Amino acid sequence: MSVACAAALPTASARRRGSPQIALDGGKLVMMQRRDLVTKGVTLSVCCSLLSSNSNGSAQALERLPFKADGYNFWTWRGRRIHYVEQGAGQPIVLIHGFGASAFHWRYNIPELAKKYKVYAIDLLGFGWSEKALVEYEATIWMEQVCDFLREVVKEPAVVVGNSLGGFTTLFAATEVPELVLAVVLLNSAGQFGDPNRPPEAAEAAPAAEEGAVTRLVVRPLKEAFQRVVLGFLFWQAKQPARIEKVLKSVYKDATNVDEYLIGSITAPAADPNAGEVYYRLMSRFMANQSRYTLDRLLNKLSCPLLLLWGDLDPWVGPAKAAQIKKFYQDTTVVNLQAGHCPHDEAPEQFNRALLEWLTSLDAGKPAESDQEPEPALQSV
């Protein structure tokens, strides 16, 4: 699944008022010319946003991060207001959400991890309680945000954990500031492996340079107008509360955790005046550039242990990608969970246990047993 999916923004309250957070996390959306594509887009957006279908209701026994309508902590980054949660003490862990979600997507993970570690969960620019800035959204903007967060807020090496787009962002940041990243954990990460038959970047740039006046003055404006109409419809459709609830209950086998808290966290956010425009920029411009950054390029630069906590039932980023990553990068541990695109929220008890056991092995200086089958205790059944 590609880094591109789409977002619609942030949250300001947990009430179900019909102005939602939409997100398409991790899905490769080309152009929504058919109703089935629109439907798939809405499904993906909801899935990546705060899905929490807990396996066997295990989340009911876990402490949950209190929802605060005004958020927790704020950090100013390049003049923009960025929201984050901070709990616990000890070695730092930084949690990064997927497209359209927020720090509250880690609601069942933060309290548990904070019993032993200092936990941070950050809202990427354009999402959650962070500012809906009208900027050119590209993979590098979130990578730079995370790198600066590690430098300015965390201020020491950390384990960085990311889901979907957050996974790709985590991997990207780890290659840019390896001195600040102890280990990387990916949950059904977005991103693609490069196509060996793809022409080199220099050849790709040539057509743009040769673009004629007709294309520049007529074709491109018409294409943009069409995109705005289609994406505007998608944005409107995806923020209907009943629609969100229906999709949530259809993409996860166990809908126990599809509660008012979850639905409110998704439907509240699009009230921001910039929400629609940010959604359009994320969907149209960011997606067009996603092939510039590939997983193989980043993995070639990675220099720390890697854990894949993978929801094998994810219809968009299945276990085949986890196997491909493990084959490409030797220092990889894979734990397969019987969950979907957001295993940390769907199966939080199993996710927390698997992550803590792996972190304990790192703390003890033990090499990860990446070639053995996961123990039943680490699996969501």
From TrEMBL:
<dbReference type="InterPro" id="IPR029058">
    <property type="entry name" value="AB_hydrolase_fold"/>
</dbReference>
<protein>
    <recommendedName>
        <fullName>AB hydrolase-1 domain-containing protein</fullName>
    </recommendedName>
</protein>
<feature type="domain" description="AB hydrolase-1">
    <location>
        <begin position="93"/>
        <end position="354"/>
    </location>
</feature>
<dbReference type="InterPro" id="IPR000073">
    <property type="entry name" value="AB_hydrolase_1"/>
</dbReference>
<dbReference type="Pfam" id="PF12697">
    <property type="entry name" value="Abhydrolase_6"/>
</dbReference>
<dbReference type="GO" id="GO:0009507">
    <property type="term" value="C:chloroplast"/>
</dbReference>
